[in-house]
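Lecture 7 notes: from sequence to structure.
We start with the chain below.
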Amino acid sequence: MSEESRSENITNDFPAGQFVQAREQQGLSVEQVCRQLNLSKAVVQAIEKGDLQYLSDPVFSRGYIRSYAKFLKLDADALVASYNLASGNVQTTGTVKAIGTVSTVPGRHQGRPLLRIGSWLFVLALIAASVWWWQTQQGFTTADREPLDDRPFSIETSDGKTLVLPQVDDAVSEVEVTEDGEAAAAAPDVTPENEEPVYLTDDQVQQLQEAQAAASSIAEPEVPAPVSSGLDITFSDDCWISIREVGGRTLFNGVAQAGQSLKFESDATLAVVVGKVDAVSLFSYQGKSIDLAAMSKDNVARLSLPL
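Predicted structure tokens for the same chain:
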């Protein structure tokens, strides 16, 4: 069998027609697929034609086929396996070879005295720094504090006088010191014992109750919910969608992910193409919900807004 006939038989074994059929059902062009997947037009056309001579590099070709299949919601693993069988490039797993050994014999790498000495010096430096920090935090020792505790404490006031404060015993807690150094006991906080509580009359109690009832009966005004003036779309599954202004710019052209929500504000007429109607859970324009299923064909809807 010649090489040309063999290549033709191999090409026929690869199910390239699935890509063309799925792309056309979703209303996509080759250029749109190239933009979404960042692939060249030659690669996309080679996959759709089953040109295995162009897809001769198995590493890159498997990646191209897998990405294109996932984009079109096809079985990527099955298509890659078909490519492997058709091209004869079966994936294999290489064995792991050891590149070195680790010795567990004790004493083999003990001839590093400089490293051990440096480690010990570092540990000693840390200990010395910790001791110095502890001494600086402690401040005066107990022996240094004893003669200072018996001395009176004096400060200079703003008017030039010297205020002498004697040592305060633990038993005396509240003492006022005068400018002459004499201590006087603070005046106790005396609460009058004969002061009687003030009671409200029945009329005053009734007035307070009526005021509280009137205040609680006042209801807050209801604020109306804002009404959307644009296009709101929510997706329950991945869906290709195109939204553009008639005679103007393109607002969106690509695949929306499941759970994603899109919102557009535009005063121009919008041309909308939805590639998968059952993947749209909400389609609302200017606050009004629109039923895409009623205006779709083969699960594809084309409409212009406003209706």
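Points to note: Residues 1-11, 92-102, 170-179, 183-187 have pLDDT under 50 and may be disordered. DSSP finds nine helices and 13 strands in the chain.
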